[in-house]
Structures are given as structure tokens and as C-alpha cells.
């Protein structure tokens, strides 16, 4: 039976293929996961491995910055990172190693930014996943907010883009308009066009069609729900059909 990405992490030499700080982390846990029985060749750097391992590493570093990992955050981690039961021990080791390693979170973030420079939407997916974990205990704490802002900066998001992303997870002034990404003074037509564009661009079916890992699909699903909720509020306020 295939274990997907966690099966790939059992493969010898995968860390060298991935390279960078994420590759070093992958190399440290090689052998602690069952090997993918399908034996599919890696070929070029496996982007699913970089995406999911990088997300785990950044989540671990965020937990370290906050100083405590609550049960609700552990549950949220399980909602973002899809893990088969037989792979949990290896994932926990990966998380603990990432949290304890002397490598800073900046290196992981920079490698993700470099790997997905041609698909910036995936970098937003990573931040959405981190926000989902951070807010699980009921609040985004000061250290977490500072951490998320710095990761966003490394990913190339400006302050306005960060605020729009944060609005999907944390209450902000004029929250639904921030989620949609337009000012309250925008016309009905502009809002409808923007909403439809967001739905098309961020629909989870697109992630599935592009062969992205389950983590990216789950994040896209939650993001679409937040966008739909924001639109429902705006439509009700404006009595839009």
C-alpha cells in the first residue's frame, strides 16, 4: 500500500534530491517512515515533499515561537496535514526535529518561496495552513502574528495581501470586504467579478487537477469556505442576488 508523501520520506537519498534545509530535515528522518511500495521514481525535486515537509517545519517553528503546543493546535495540525495512522510516529519525529533544529524558520520559508516562485498561490496555501493551526486555541498570539508576517514577507506578500489573508481567519474591521480584497466602496459589479475570480482561481478542484498533495486541497477547501462566507455577508448586506 502506498503511503503517499510519507512513504516517499522512507526513500534513501531523498534528502539530497530535495536539497537545502528542507532536504536536511528529510534526510534526518529517512528510515523512520515506511517506504512507498509503489517504488515510483523521484525524478526532479518532488514538489509535494517540499510543500508538505516545509509546511510541517514552519508549523513546528511557529510552535516554538509561541512556546507551547495546545491540544487544539495538535488537532488543527492533523486537519491540515493528512497523515495515515501508520505514519504518525514518523511525522511526530519530523515535527520535533524541525522544532529543535538550529536552522531558523527563514531557511525553510526561503526554500519554499524559491521552489514555488512560479505558483505563488501555493505559498498562500502554506500561510493559510499556518493560520489554521495558530488560531486553533482561539487567538493569534503576538509572537505568532509576528512570525506569520515574517513568513509572508519572505514569500513576497505585501501588507495588504497579508491583511486579506488574515481576514479569512481573524476578525478584522470590514472583514468580508478584506477577504474579497476590495474596498467597501466597490460597485456591486466589481464585487461580483472579484468573487467569481476568487472562486475559480482557488477552487480545490484545480488543486486536485494539478496533482497537488492532499494538504493543499484541504487548505483550498477551507479557503473557499471563508470566501463564500464573506460573499454571503456582503450579498445579504447589499441585497444582491
Automatic annotation (TrEMBL):
**Stored Pfam families:** TerB (PF05099)
Q: What domain of life does the native source organism fall in?
A: Bacteria
What range(s) does the J domain occupy? Answer: 175-239
Q: Gene3D superfamilies annotated for this entry?
A: DnaJ domain (1.10.287.110), TerB-like (1.10.3680.10)
- This one is known as DnaJ like chaperone protein
Amino acid at each position: 500500500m502506498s503511503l503517499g508523501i510519507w512513504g516517499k520520506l522512507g526513500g534513501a537519498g531523498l534528502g539530497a534530491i530535495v536539497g537545502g534545509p528542507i532536504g536536511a530535515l528529510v534526510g534526518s528522518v529517512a528510515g523512520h517512515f515506511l517506504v512507498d511500495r509503489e517504488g515510483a521514481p523521484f525524478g526532479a525535486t518532488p514538489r509535494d515533499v517540499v510543500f508538505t515537509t516545509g509546511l510541517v517545519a514552519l508549523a513546528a517553528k511557529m510552535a516554538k515561537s509561541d512556546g507551547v503546543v495546545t491540544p487544539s493546535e495538535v488537532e488543527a495540525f492533523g486537519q491540515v496535514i493528512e497523515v495515515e495512522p501508520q505514519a504518525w510516529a514518523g511525522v511526530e519525529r519530523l515535527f520535533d526535529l524541525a522544532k529543535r533544529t538550529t536552522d531558523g524558520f527563514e531557511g525553510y520559508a526561503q526554500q519554499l518561496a524559491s521552489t514555488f516562485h512560479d505558483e505563488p498561490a501555493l505559498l498562500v496555501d502554506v500561510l493559510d495552513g499556518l493560520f489554521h493551526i495558530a488560531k486553533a486555541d482561539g487567538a493569534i498570539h503576538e509572537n505568532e502574528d509576528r512570525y506569520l508576517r515574517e513568513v509572508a514577507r519572505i514569500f513576497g506578500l505585501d501588507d495588504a495581501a497579508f491583511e486579506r489573508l488574515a481576514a479569512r481567519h481573524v476578525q478584522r474591521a470590514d472583514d468580508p470586504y478584506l477577504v474579497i480584497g476590495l474596498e467597501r466602496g466597490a460597485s456591486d459589479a466589481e464585487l461580483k467579478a472579484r468573487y467569481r475570480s476568487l472562486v475559480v482561481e482557488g477552487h480545490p478542484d484545480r488543486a486536485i487537477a494539478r496533482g497537488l498533495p492532499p494538504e493543499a486541497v484541504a487548505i483550498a477547501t477551507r479557503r473557499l469556505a471563508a470566501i463564500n462566507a464573506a460573499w454571503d455577508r456582503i450579498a445579504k448586506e447589499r441585497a444582491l442576488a
